[in-house]
Design a protein that fits this description.
GO terms for molecular function: hydrolase activity; nucleotide binding. By secondary structure, the protein is an alpha+beta fold. The protein contains 2 helices and 3 strands; from the N terminus they run αβββα. The chain has a 3-stranded antiparallel β-sheet. Strand 1 and strand 2 form a beta hairpin. The longest helix is centred in the C-terminal third of the chain and has 17 residues. The protein is globular. It binds zinc ion (ZN). The site of zinc ion has 5 residues, from helix 1.
Length: 92
């Protein structure tokens, strides 16, 4: 009866990017994660790393998800290295 799907991922901008339904330029991706430039950058280097799997809310994450978070951070760092960013004060 509810008007919303269980996952709510159809309206999720990150899932739309993951499914190539937007103009967002995907800078890096693998089977699990993707990295793209923020639509409204608030720093010269403002990138987002998201998992392909829809996550409703960071509060639903558990201890098991820590390695995923670490891989997300690693991808974020590798995009900075790829862009030869050394000034980490202008990074988000
Ligand atoms: Zn999503």
């Amino acid at each position: 009866m509810g008007s919303q799907g269980a996952s709510g991922s159809e309206d999720c901008p990150f899932c739309q990017i993951a499914n190539n339904q937007t103009d967002a330029e995907i800078l890096l991706s693998d089977h699990e994660l993707l990295c793209f430039r923020d639509i409204k950058p608030s720093a010269t280097h403002h990138y987002l790393v998201v998992p392909r799997t829809h996550i409703n809310n960071c509060k639903t994450l558990q201890g098991d998800d820590i390695p995923l978070g670490e891989r997300m951070e690693k991808m974020g760092r590798s995009i900075l290295e790829k862009n030869k960013v050394s000034n980490l004060n202008d990074v988000r």
